Amino acid sequence: MMIDTEHPKKSKCNCPHADGKKIVCKHKIALFFTAFPKEADNYITEFEEYEREEEDREQERYDQIVKYVESLSKEELRMALINGLVEADESFSMPDKKLGSKVQILSLFSADLYRKGNWKI
Ligand SMILES: [Zn+2]
């Protein structure tokens, strides 16, 4: 096993997954982080920072959406919900990473609106 820190894809490992291929397998990653524990720490710190920022962004997006929805009239709400449901329905046929959150946001909307009595089934 050999790791090339400049060109990670040129590293070599003889596990079945990476043997003879330009694949960065978990062994290469493990060896890299064993050889450079500080890099591992930096990576984890960066990742945690990214996760926190992502949470903030999600919260911000959610707040914006809630604000937008609250500014709509009942008729506009109806149209927005119909469009959203149609869009979510279309997305169901294509596996999409964003689908989960889309459907989640939609049901959050519905629950929120329903609770406020703005929207009745
Ligand atoms: Zn490997």
TrEMBL record:
Query: What superkingdom heads the lineage?
Result: Bacteria
PROSITE patterns in the cross-refs: ZF_SWIM
The name under which this protein is listed is: SWIM-type domain-containing protein
Keyword annotations of the record: Metal-binding, Zinc, Zinc-finger
Using the record's annotation, list all stretches that form the SWIM-type domain: 1-36
What GO MF annotations does this protein's record show?
zinc ion binding
Task: Return the InterPro entries for the record.
Answer: Znf_SWIM
